[in-house]
Amino acid sequence: MARTVVISGGGTGIGYAIAERLAADGDNVVLTGRREPVLAQAATKLGDRASFITADLTEVEGAQRIAEHIAENHGTVDVIVANAGGNIGLQSSEHQPEGLAGVSWLWTENLRLNVMTAVHLVEGLKPLLADNGRILLFSSVAAYRGSGSGSYAASKAALHPYAIDLSAELGPRGITANVIAPGYIQDTEFFGAGISPQRRAWNIDLTHTKQPGTPADIATLAHWLAAPEAGNVTAQIIQSNGGAVVGR
Question: Where is the Ketoreductase domain (predicted)?
């Protein structure tokens, strides 16, 4: 029986790769994000198993819109992939104030992008989550080694105890909650306009494998964690970074 899967940030990069993998299995994937043209194009490429709904998950209203859409069109949800996020420090800084106000803005925005987008999506869909469902949250290697300003790393690390608490709450219903923590993944929009050759080489040199990760790597891991066979794997933070976090 086809499952219903909701994937935030599903129009590009890791989110799209996960959607592609699950749709190929016969699951019905619902892509969410803020950019309708991107979502529409992705859903078209994925075919009949895919649909989309635009929503801003930094706001409660966005999650409510998604929950209403799922309830009306699917009834329940089987897999929640809370993939949306980013590092506001790598995006335009034109709105960032100076001084202490700027530090506060940076922290608040990263918490909104990475914590609240996940919390709003999961909590909004929790009443619709079917028994034996799956919840996937997305952290980062930065949660283990820092991110420069601290705010991005902290926002990702905050998802670790959230997954543990979700697992404890929902585990009696056969629902699992896990976190995937990628390292450097190429071919995504994380670095905005692009990563410099020097930064790319630095990221790759940190790994033991001496190669970048790909969206397909993370999709393979997500596919396994979302599978019925992974029902005894829960409350875990699973890293995929080529060994970059442990040093040389």
Answer: 3-188
